[in-house]
Write a structure and sequence with these properties.
The chain has 165 residues and is an alpha+beta fold. It folds into two domains: 30 residues; 122 residues, Lipocalin (Beta Barrel), CATH 2.40.128. Helix content is 21%, strand content 35%. The chain has an eight-stranded antiparallel beta barrel with strand order 1-3-4-5-6-7-8-9.
């Protein structure tokens, strides 16, 4: 019969091998090319195409610009907001689309990329490469994303409706 100290060594070795095997199996299950979403709400990760734009007044009434004359409507409805799983966000479509009142879509999400997105509750924040940010409230309903951004200069709220293409 073997002494008790000689029996513990094989047991320790078996425990060590088991722990190593379990650890390796846990770390091997994740594909290295599947980045973890870092922006927050994973349901935002997609390309979203603008379908409607409007302004909300202080009473909460939204006036949608379904038929905007001139170059504004064709430009706005080319806009696409692209939220990536790595926390990056960029805008596709034509540059410099004017928004009613002041500003343009370039001020919300630069088309060149380099911006990041994050969520907290119903707040969506776009962190731009120059250090500035754009804050939105957002609501997801099926394939529709609603974004609202307060225009501090006018006191009105920009309302964007986007859909997954």
């Amino acid at each position: 019969m073997l002494p008790a100290s000689d029996l513990r060594t094989p047991r320790r070795l078996a425990v060590l091998i088991t722990l190593v095997a379990v650890s390796l199996s846990l770390f091997q299950c994740k594909k290295s090319d599947d980045p973890e979403p870092v922006g927050g709400d994973t349901n935002l990760v997609a390309s979203w195409k603008m379908t409607q734009y409007g302004l909300k007044d202080s009473q909460g009434v939204v006036e949608y610009f379904d038929e905007i004359s001139g170059q504004v409507a064709p430009c706005l409805y080319t806009q696409e907001f692209i939220f990536a799983a790595d926390g990056g966000v960029k805008r596709g479509g034509r540059d410099g689309c004017a928004l009613a009142g002041v500003g343009s879509t370039d001020e919300l999400i630069p088309g060149s990329g380099g911006s990041k997105w994050q969520t907290a509750g119903t707040k969506l924040t776009i962190l731009k490469p120059d250090g500035s940010k754009a804050d939105f409230t957002y609501e997801l309903s099926g394939m529709t994303l609603r974004l609202e951004a307060l225009d501090r200069a006018t006191g009105r709220t920009h309302v964007f409706l986007l859909k997954k293409p």
